[in-house]
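Hi support team,

I'm filing this because I wasn't sure whether my run with nicotinamide-adenine-dinucleotide finished correctly. The job status page said complete, but I'd like someone to confirm that the output block is well-formed before I use it downstream. Pasting the exact inputs I used:
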Amino acid sequence: MSAASMKVAVIGAGTMGNGIAHVFAQSGHSVSLVDVNAAALERAQATIDRNLDRLVAKERITAEDKAATLSRLTTTTEMHGAVSDAELVVEAATERLDLKLKIFEQMDASAPADAILATNTSSISITKIAAATKRPDKVIGMHFMNPVPIMKLVEVIRGYSTSDATTEKVVALSKQLGKVPVEVNDYPGFVANRILMPMINEAICSLHEGVAGVAEIDEVMKLGMAHPMGPLHLADFIGLDVCLSILRVLHDGFGQPKYAPCPLLVNMVTAGKLGVKSGEGFYVHTRGSKEITVAPAFS
Ligand code: NAD
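And here is everything the job wrote out:
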């Protein structure tokens, strides 16, 4: 794997996959973005186009840079072809263990023997995912933050068998992408979500118990704790289904009641209120606009 210009496959073109594909393509790598859902690929392309336009408008890149970035990016619904000549695969599909195990088994069968298989999972054990492959030394967590083109952190998670060589390559690559890698070990939720998700869950419980309204809870945390975004707004941004999945991994992994997801979060996910991606969560969101209003259920 030569860090200069690599063939990269990104599996999953949702909230995170489009940003990961964007960042790799902008840094000079050829990227094949894969999703089982053709509509998700179209949405991802539109998002990448819009985000590159913003960078051009801010004079952070030129129109030629935008065109070159797009020329390095292809999309497909066929994983085998995208992965068969990849030097690195970054999996960013739905946060479900059974799905990730299946995808890693397929990736392992299709990718060249020396390819690194990374996962962007927020919480699932890297060691468990690696066990679905015949190359656990080359499986690693590469946990980007949302929105990927803006956020600097990459949490680099070593599974039980991840080799030093794999870790060193992923750390170097993260730096080449303009990110700051931080190495952590493989425990449920790693560091970022072990700390973030209980806070978000507590904000949802505070709303559920009527301690304060949506806007008030977010305002307290923004003004009082200098958070750039309140926890309920952030939960919408992450995806309430993703928050619920992560809390379940923490709850199952540590076996402690403090990680039990708030019943309101469970209800909202069951009702399809997933936040930004579905248009409504704690707030109502309009695609392409930063304006938000508190959702009717809470106003
Ligand atoms: P998402 O629901 O927005 O997108 C997931 C995508 O995966 C969907 O487009 C879906 O069609 C696709 N998919 C499902 N099965 C697939 C398959 N077999 N092959 C290819 N594509 C498939 O989810 P997301 O928020 O982008 O999360 C993706 C991963 O990134 C999860 O592991 C999540 O925990 C992690 N993550 C999310 C955030 C966040 O803020 N949302 C932040 C960091 C990490």
